[in-house]
Amino acid sequence: MPRLHIAALLAALVAASPAAAQEPASAYPSRNVELVVPFAAGGSADVIARMLAQVVSESWPHPVVVQNRAGATGALASEYVLRAPADGYTILLDSASTHSVLPAYRSDLPYDTVTSFSHITLLVTFPQMMVINPKKVPAKTAAEFIDYLKAHPGKANFASSGSGGASHFAGELFKIMSKTEITHVPYRGNGPALTDLLAGNVDMTIDNMTAVWPQVKESNLRALGVGSLKRTPLAPDVPALAETLPGYEALSWIAIAGPAGMPPGIVTKIAKAFAGAAQRPDIVKRLQELGGTAAVTATPAELVAFITKDRERWREVARTANLGATK
To answer: Is the pLDDT at 18 greater than 80, yes or no?
Structure first.
Protein backbone atom coordinates (compact mmCIF):
# COMPACT_ATOMS: atom_id res chain seq x y z
CA MET A 1 0.00 0.00 0.00
CA PRO A 2 1.46 3.43 -0.89
CA ARG A 3 2.87 5.35 2.05
CA LEU A 4 0.38 8.19 1.50
CA HIS A 5 -2.57 5.78 1.76
CA ILE A 6 -1.18 4.24 4.96
CA ALA A 7 -0.86 7.68 6.54
CA ALA A 8 -4.40 8.56 5.55
CA LEU A 9 -5.72 5.31 7.00
CA LEU A 10 -3.91 5.84 10.30
CA ALA A 11 -5.25 9.38 10.49
CA ALA A 12 -8.79 8.11 9.92
CA LEU A 13 -8.43 5.47 12.63
CA VAL A 14 -7.17 8.02 15.14
CA ALA A 15 -9.98 10.40 14.28
CA ALA A 16 -12.53 7.63 14.80
CA SER A 17 -11.20 6.63 18.22
CA PRO A 18 -13.30 7.59 21.26
CA ALA A 19 -10.56 9.73 22.74
CA ALA A 20 -10.15 11.74 19.57
CA ALA A 21 -13.89 11.98 18.92
CA GLN A 22 -14.70 13.20 22.43
CA GLU A 23 -15.59 16.86 22.24
CA PRO A 24 -14.69 19.29 25.03
CA ALA A 25 -17.42 20.19 27.51
CA SER A 26 -17.19 23.80 26.35
CA ALA A 27 -18.47 22.75 22.90
CA TYR A 28 -21.34 20.65 24.24
CA PRO A 29 -24.01 20.44 22.89
CA SER A 30 -23.04 20.78 19.26
CA ARG A 31 -26.19 18.95 18.12
CA ASN A 32 -29.58 17.86 19.45
CA VAL A 33 -29.70 15.97 22.75
CA GLU A 34 -32.11 13.03 23.05
CA LEU A 35 -33.86 12.73 26.42
CA VAL A 36 -35.39 9.26 26.64
CA VAL A 37 -38.51 8.89 28.79
CA PRO A 38 -39.20 5.26 29.78
CA PHE A 39 -42.96 5.70 30.03
CA ALA A 40 -45.85 6.51 27.74
CA ALA A 41 -46.69 10.04 26.67
CA GLY A 42 -49.12 11.86 28.92
CA GLY A 43 -47.89 10.48 32.23
CA SER A 44 -46.23 12.53 34.93
CA ALA A 45 -42.67 11.59 33.91
CA ASP A 46 -43.40 12.67 30.35
CA VAL A 47 -44.96 15.97 31.50
CA ILE A 48 -41.95 16.78 33.68
CA ALA A 49 -39.46 15.73 31.00
CA ARG A 50 -41.02 17.98 28.39
CA MET A 51 -41.32 20.91 30.79
CA LEU A 52 -37.64 20.71 31.77
CA ALA A 53 -36.46 19.95 28.23
CA GLN A 54 -38.12 23.12 26.99
CA VAL A 55 -36.39 25.24 29.64
CA VAL A 56 -32.97 23.69 28.99
CA SER A 57 -33.44 24.08 25.23
CA GLU A 58 -33.91 27.82 25.72
CA SER A 59 -30.40 28.14 27.13
CA TRP A 60 -28.57 25.68 24.85
CA PRO A 61 -27.64 26.23 21.18
CA HIS A 62 -29.37 22.96 20.27
CA PRO A 63 -32.65 21.57 21.63
CA VAL A 64 -33.34 18.67 23.97
CA VAL A 65 -35.69 16.31 22.12
CA VAL A 66 -37.92 14.05 24.23
CA GLN A 67 -38.39 10.49 23.00
CA ASN A 68 -40.84 8.08 24.69
CA ARG A 69 -39.68 4.45 24.82
CA ALA A 70 -42.21 2.76 27.07
CA GLY A 71 -42.14 -0.88 28.05
CA ALA A 72 -40.82 -3.32 30.65
CA THR A 73 -40.99 -0.65 33.39
CA GLY A 74 -38.08 1.26 31.93
CA ALA A 75 -35.86 -1.65 30.92
CA LEU A 76 -36.31 -1.01 27.20
CA ALA A 77 -35.42 2.67 27.53
CA SER A 78 -32.49 1.92 29.83
CA GLU A 79 -31.01 -0.61 27.39
CA TYR A 80 -31.48 1.84 24.52
CA VAL A 81 -29.56 4.55 26.37
CA LEU A 82 -26.81 2.15 27.45
CA ARG A 83 -26.23 1.12 23.83
CA ALA A 84 -25.62 4.77 22.89
CA PRO A 85 -22.20 6.45 23.03
CA ALA A 86 -21.35 7.91 26.44
CA ASP A 87 -21.08 11.40 24.98
CA GLY A 88 -24.09 13.10 26.57
CA TYR A 89 -26.26 13.11 23.46
CA THR A 90 -28.51 10.27 24.65
CA ILE A 91 -29.64 10.60 28.26
CA LEU A 92 -32.34 8.97 30.36
CA LEU A 93 -35.05 10.30 32.63
CA ASP A 94 -34.68 7.63 35.32
CA SER A 95 -36.89 7.18 38.36
CA ALA A 96 -37.62 5.15 41.48
CA SER A 97 -39.53 2.72 39.26
CA THR A 98 -36.74 2.14 36.77
CA HIS A 99 -33.70 2.19 39.05
CA SER A 100 -34.79 1.30 42.60
CA VAL A 101 -37.84 -0.94 42.30
CA LEU A 102 -37.36 -2.77 39.00
CA PRO A 103 -34.11 -4.51 40.07
CA ALA A 104 -35.98 -5.79 43.13
CA TYR A 105 -38.48 -7.39 40.78
CA ARG A 106 -36.24 -8.63 37.96
CA SER A 107 -33.03 -10.60 38.38
CA ASP A 108 -32.45 -10.88 34.63
CA LEU A 109 -31.70 -7.23 33.83
CA PRO A 110 -28.67 -7.09 31.52
CA TYR A 111 -27.32 -4.09 33.42
CA ASP A 112 -26.89 -2.84 36.98
CA THR A 113 -29.00 0.20 37.79
CA VAL A 114 -26.16 1.78 39.76
CA THR A 115 -22.84 0.83 38.14
CA SER A 116 -23.95 0.73 34.46
CA PHE A 117 -24.94 4.40 34.44
CA SER A 118 -23.47 7.85 34.84
CA HIS A 119 -25.83 9.31 37.44
CA ILE A 120 -26.09 13.02 36.70
CA THR A 121 -28.56 14.83 38.95
CA LEU A 122 -31.70 14.35 41.05
CA LEU A 123 -34.52 16.57 39.77
CA VAL A 124 -37.83 16.04 41.56
CA THR A 125 -39.15 14.14 44.57
CA PHE A 126 -42.76 13.50 45.46
CA PRO A 127 -44.79 11.26 47.74
CA GLN A 128 -46.93 8.52 46.33
CA MET A 129 -50.66 9.11 46.82
CA MET A 130 -53.41 6.52 47.20
CA VAL A 131 -56.48 7.44 45.16
CA ILE A 132 -59.73 5.65 44.38
CA ASN A 133 -62.55 6.15 41.92
CA PRO A 134 -65.24 7.54 44.26
CA LYS A 135 -68.02 6.38 41.93
CA LYS A 136 -66.89 2.79 42.33
CA VAL A 137 -65.44 2.47 45.81
CA PRO A 138 -67.49 3.64 48.84
CA ALA A 139 -64.60 4.72 51.05
CA LYS A 140 -63.63 8.16 52.30
CA THR A 141 -60.59 7.20 54.37
CA ALA A 142 -57.80 4.66 54.18
CA ALA A 143 -59.28 2.84 57.19
CA GLU A 144 -62.67 2.59 55.43
CA PHE A 145 -60.95 1.28 52.30
CA ILE A 146 -59.17 -1.42 54.30
CA ASP A 147 -62.51 -2.43 55.86
CA TYR A 148 -64.02 -2.53 52.36
CA LEU A 149 -61.22 -4.79 51.09
CA LYS A 150 -61.57 -7.15 54.03
CA ALA A 151 -65.32 -7.35 53.44
CA HIS A 152 -64.75 -8.11 49.75
CA PRO A 153 -61.55 -10.23 49.67
CA GLY A 154 -60.04 -10.57 46.21
CA LYS A 155 -62.78 -8.53 44.54
CA ALA A 156 -60.95 -5.20 44.21
CA ASN A 157 -57.93 -4.34 42.07
CA PHE A 158 -55.26 -1.68 41.83
CA ALA A 159 -53.53 -0.20 38.80
CA SER A 160 -49.83 0.45 38.42
CA SER A 161 -47.57 1.94 35.77
CA GLY A 162 -46.06 -1.51 35.20
CA SER A 163 -44.98 -4.69 36.95
CA GLY A 164 -41.92 -4.02 39.05
CA GLY A 165 -42.48 -0.26 39.13
CA ALA A 166 -42.84 2.10 42.09
CA SER A 167 -46.65 2.15 41.99
CA HIS A 168 -46.73 -1.67 41.86
CA PHE A 169 -44.52 -2.02 44.92
CA ALA A 170 -46.34 0.77 46.77
CA GLY A 171 -49.51 -1.31 46.31
CA GLU A 172 -47.74 -4.49 47.43
CA LEU A 173 -46.45 -2.72 50.54
CA PHE A 174 -50.01 -1.59 51.27
CA LYS A 175 -51.25 -5.17 50.90
CA ILE A 176 -48.57 -6.45 53.29
CA MET A 177 -49.18 -3.83 55.95
CA SER A 178 -53.00 -3.79 55.71
CA LYS A 179 -53.24 -7.60 55.45
CA THR A 180 -55.70 -7.36 52.57
CA GLU A 181 -56.13 -9.01 49.17
CA ILE A 182 -56.27 -6.76 46.12
CA THR A 183 -55.37 -7.74 42.57
CA HIS A 184 -52.55 -5.97 40.75
CA VAL A 185 -53.30 -4.72 37.19
CA PRO A 186 -50.18 -3.44 35.39
CA TYR A 187 -50.20 -0.86 32.58
CA ARG A 188 -47.59 0.62 30.24
CA GLY A 189 -47.14 3.84 32.20
CA ASN A 190 -49.17 5.83 34.69
CA GLY A 191 -51.03 7.69 31.92
CA PRO A 192 -52.92 4.58 30.71
CA ALA A 193 -53.37 3.40 34.32
CA LEU A 194 -54.92 6.72 35.28
CA THR A 195 -57.21 6.64 32.24
CA ASP A 196 -58.64 3.27 33.28
CA LEU A 197 -58.99 4.35 36.90
CA LEU A 198 -60.98 7.40 35.81
CA ALA A 199 -63.13 5.14 33.62
CA GLY A 200 -63.89 2.86 36.56
CA ASN A 201 -62.13 -0.18 35.11
CA VAL A 202 -59.89 -0.40 38.19
CA ASP A 203 -60.52 0.62 41.78
CA MET A 204 -57.36 2.18 43.15
CA THR A 205 -53.79 3.21 42.46
CA ILE A 206 -50.91 4.39 44.60
CA ASP A 207 -48.94 6.53 42.22
CA ASN A 208 -46.78 9.58 42.42
CA MET A 209 -48.65 12.66 43.50
CA THR A 210 -47.64 14.47 40.32
CA ALA A 211 -49.71 12.02 38.27
CA VAL A 212 -52.89 11.91 40.35
CA TRP A 213 -53.14 15.19 42.23
CA PRO A 214 -54.66 17.23 39.36
CA GLN A 215 -57.52 14.71 39.13
CA VAL A 216 -58.05 14.87 42.90
CA LYS A 217 -58.32 18.66 42.75
CA GLU A 218 -60.95 18.26 40.01
CA SER A 219 -62.87 15.78 42.25
CA ASN A 220 -62.53 13.05 39.66
CA LEU A 221 -60.57 10.91 42.12
CA ARG A 222 -60.54 10.75 45.92
CA ALA A 223 -57.26 10.85 47.81
CA LEU A 224 -57.12 8.51 50.81
CA GLY A 225 -53.54 9.20 51.85
CA VAL A 226 -49.99 10.12 50.90
CA GLY A 227 -46.94 7.89 51.13
CA SER A 228 -44.77 10.28 53.15
CA LEU A 229 -44.48 9.53 56.86
CA LYS A 230 -46.08 12.89 57.60
CA ARG A 231 -48.61 14.96 55.70
CA THR A 232 -47.17 16.94 52.83
CA PRO A 233 -47.59 20.73 52.81
CA LEU A 234 -48.60 20.36 49.16
CA ALA A 235 -51.83 18.65 50.32
CA PRO A 236 -52.18 19.33 54.06
CA ASP A 237 -55.74 18.02 54.26
CA VAL A 238 -54.78 14.58 52.96
CA PRO A 239 -53.67 12.25 55.78
CA ALA A 240 -50.44 10.28 55.59
CA LEU A 241 -51.13 6.58 55.08
CA ALA A 242 -48.79 6.12 58.05
CA GLU A 243 -51.54 7.58 60.23
CA THR A 244 -53.53 4.41 59.49
CA LEU A 245 -50.62 2.03 58.81
CA PRO A 246 -47.74 3.18 61.06
CA GLY A 247 -44.45 3.15 59.19
CA TYR A 248 -45.92 3.03 55.70
CA GLU A 249 -43.70 5.01 53.32
CA ALA A 250 -43.72 5.15 49.52
CA LEU A 251 -41.82 8.00 47.90
CA SER A 252 -40.78 8.54 44.32
CA TRP A 253 -38.21 10.60 42.46
CA ILE A 254 -37.00 11.55 38.98
CA ALA A 255 -33.38 12.03 37.92
CA ILE A 256 -31.15 12.21 34.85
CA ALA A 257 -28.64 9.49 33.89
CA GLY A 258 -26.53 8.43 30.94
CA PRO A 259 -24.28 5.53 30.00
CA ALA A 260 -21.37 4.84 32.34
CA GLY A 261 -18.17 6.60 31.39
CA MET A 262 -19.53 10.00 30.39
CA PRO A 263 -16.94 12.80 30.51
CA PRO A 264 -17.17 14.57 33.92
CA GLY A 265 -17.29 18.00 32.30
CA ILE A 266 -20.34 17.07 30.24
CA VAL A 267 -22.00 15.43 33.27
CA THR A 268 -21.53 18.68 35.17
CA LYS A 269 -22.92 20.75 32.29
CA ILE A 270 -26.05 18.58 31.99
CA ALA A 271 -26.56 18.54 35.76
CA LYS A 272 -26.28 22.31 36.00
CA ALA A 273 -28.73 22.88 33.14
CA PHE A 274 -31.43 20.45 34.31
CA ALA A 275 -31.13 21.17 38.04
CA GLY A 276 -31.26 24.88 37.25
CA ALA A 277 -34.40 24.34 35.16
CA ALA A 278 -36.09 22.40 37.97
CA GLN A 279 -35.29 25.16 40.46
CA ARG A 280 -36.45 28.08 38.32
CA PRO A 281 -39.25 29.82 40.27
CA ASP A 282 -41.97 29.29 37.66
CA ILE A 283 -41.04 25.59 37.32
CA VAL A 284 -40.94 25.17 41.12
CA LYS A 285 -44.46 26.58 41.24
CA ARG A 286 -45.65 24.29 38.45
CA LEU A 287 -44.10 21.25 40.14
CA GLN A 288 -45.85 22.15 43.39
CA GLU A 289 -49.15 22.39 41.56
CA LEU A 290 -48.50 18.84 40.34
CA GLY A 291 -47.46 17.65 43.80
CA GLY A 292 -43.69 17.53 43.27
CA THR A 293 -40.76 19.26 44.95
CA ALA A 294 -37.61 20.36 43.13
CA ALA A 295 -34.78 18.33 44.62
CA VAL A 296 -31.75 19.77 46.36
CA THR A 297 -28.81 19.39 43.97
CA ALA A 298 -26.74 16.30 44.76
CA THR A 299 -23.34 15.25 43.49
CA PRO A 300 -23.16 12.09 41.34
CA ALA A 301 -21.67 10.22 44.32
CA GLU A 302 -24.52 11.33 46.59
CA LEU A 303 -27.05 10.29 43.97
CA VAL A 304 -25.45 6.85 43.68
CA ALA A 305 -25.67 6.41 47.47
CA PHE A 306 -29.31 7.57 47.42
CA ILE A 307 -30.31 5.10 44.69
CA THR A 308 -28.40 2.23 46.31
CA LYS A 309 -30.21 2.74 49.63
CA ASP A 310 -33.62 3.11 47.97
CA ARG A 311 -33.05 -0.04 45.88
CA GLU A 312 -32.27 -2.14 48.96
CA ARG A 313 -35.43 -0.91 50.72
CA TRP A 314 -37.62 -2.16 47.87
CA ARG A 315 -35.70 -5.42 47.69
CA GLU A 316 -36.82 -6.03 51.25
CA VAL A 317 -40.45 -5.52 50.18
CA ALA A 318 -39.89 -8.00 47.32
CA ARG A 319 -38.48 -10.56 49.74
CA THR A 320 -41.42 -10.16 52.11
CA ALA A 321 -44.02 -10.39 49.34
CA ASN A 322 -42.14 -13.16 47.48
CA LEU A 323 -42.08 -11.13 44.31
CA GLY A 324 -40.02 -11.28 41.14
CA ALA A 325 -36.28 -11.55 41.67
CA THR A 326 -36.69 -12.98 45.17
CA LYS A 327 -38.78 -16.02 44.15
So the answer is: no
Cα 265 to Cα 233: distance, rounded to the nearest angstrom: 37
Q: What is the mean pLDDT of residues 263-288?
A: 95
Q: Cα–Cα distance between 28 and 295 in angstroms, integer? A: 25
In the chain, residues under CATH classification 3.40.190.10 are 127-243
Which class in CATH covers the domain with range 127-243? alpha beta
Question: Quick one: what percent of the chain has pLDDT higher than 70?
Answer: 92
CA distance 290 to 194: 15
> What is the distance between the terminal CA atoms of the chain, rounded to a whole angstrom?
61
> Three-class SS of residue 17?
coil
Q: How confident is the model at residue 11 (pLDDT cuts 50, 70, 90)?
A: very low
Q: Which amino acid belongs to residue 116?
A: S
Among 289, 142, 148, 130, which Cα is nearest to 223's? 130
Query: Which pLDDT does position 323 carry in this prediction?
Result: 86
DSSP H stretches of helix in the chain: 3-16, 18-21, 44-59, 75-82, 96, 102-105, 142-151, 166-178, 190-199, 209-217, 264-278, 281-290, 300-321
Per-residue pLDDT tens digits for 125-150: 989 999 999 999 999 999 999 999 99
Look at domain 29-126+251-326 and name its CATH class.
Answer: alpha beta
**Which residues make up the CATH 3.40.190.150 domain(s) of the chain?**
29-126+251-326
In the predicted model, what is the mean pLDDT of residues 291-308? 89
Question: How far are the Cα atoms of 5, 144, 154 from residue 279, in angstroms, in the given order?
Answer: 54, 39, 44
